[in-house]
Amino acid sequence: MSLxxxxxxxxxxxxxxxxxxxxxxxxxxSQRLASxxxxxxxxxxxxxxxxxxxAAAGEAFLLQGGDCAETFAGxxxxxxxxxxxxxxxxxxxxxxxxxMPVIKMGRMAGQFAKPRSSDTETRGDVTLPAYRxxxxxxxxxxxxxxxxxxxRLLQGYHMAASTxxxxxxFTQGGFxxxxxxxxWNKGFASNPANARYEGLAAEIDRAIKFMEAAGADFExxxxxxxxxxxxxxxMDYEAPMTRIDSRTQTPYNTSAHFLWIGERTRELDGAxxxxxxxxxxxxxxxxxxxxDIDTMLRLIDKLDPNREPGRLTFITRMGAGKIRxxxxxxxxxxxxxDATPLWVTxxxxxxxxxxxxxxxxxxxxxxxxxxxxxxxSHRAAGTHPGGIHVELTGDDVTECLGGSEMIDEATLATRxxxxxxxxxxxxxxxxxxxxxxxxxxxR
Length: 443
Ligand code: PEP
Ligand code: CO
Hints:
binds phosphoenolpyruvate, globular, alpha/beta, 443 residues, 14 strands, TIM Barrel, eight-stranded parallel beta barrel, single chain, two-stranded antiparallel sheet, binds cobalt (II) ion
């Protein structure tokens, strides 16, 4: 396949793209992006697809986590390190609980573009273009900042590159060595989930020391494979990052290992599904509560015609109140469809609420309830619950209600930092990991 064959999406209906005021400047930025080095390599992408295939078969579990919207200002060392530490801690809890490999993936190094429910935002009597993420325009509510600026495409690439560089340094350079399992907990406020984690870390420590004393070799524990993924939304970024791999002569999106199509852009005859059908990366599709069986089956035929293990992940985001009705029919239909997608739960996006004071939030208990509903549905159908996709940060923000810190509506204002959806904080993330581990033990 040539790069020109990849361009068929351009003639199809497309949603959620910005109105760039200067078409020539976008074309110029795209051309420059196309000349920049790839951020990931085809071999890593293939390796991830194989691992996801194992998760689809019930032999591994995917943990995907990170900001709803990464920001350029947030791409600093502390922030990235805390998110990585949180994901590593969650992975330890899950690996230990489930006794199976956990595939670690950040919603990181490219999660910059956001779909919006409205093209504009009105405050008082002023209406401006909606904020679409730092790779498109600025969050500040001024005319100047809300203009879609193609220079941001280039800045997004550089932010992704430096974030990925730090991820690689941390996960390959000794920081993620399992013998450091205690140190990942340092610096976080002490709380019940942290105390529980300390107990588990002590057990792991003891097991490692025993194995070392017995002469076992631990190269495997020194490094962690950590993959990146983001919503493949903004085509003026994704298209120029797509390259033909010299080894296989097939196209890979080199901006991330994994990309997914959001709930709002997954029309069967739309641009995004067409583009995704042509790249070799493992891909995801979000499925909301209105997904019917026919749509699901046609998505499989378009996106995974060869029924390749690990190729296609369905990320369900039904809402706690709906998952027990909406998911089981899809799982039943899959069983006679000769397809084995990886099933992942996103217990965040179906559980949004707005407080009377105007904060977008989610209740931790709803998040947990959706996760439990996900496991229940798979247990009943005999299919594999293969992973979890969450919006989280390593910082002690107050964006989601509840958890053992019992964050209430009045507390939300104290540290609400997300520019988009509310994220689990460090402690809520660890708590959730322990709950998922229990579900995995009883699957
Ligand atoms: C998201 O993952 O941030 C998102 C917008 O999700 P969805 O497409 O499921 O609404
Ligand atoms: Co979100």
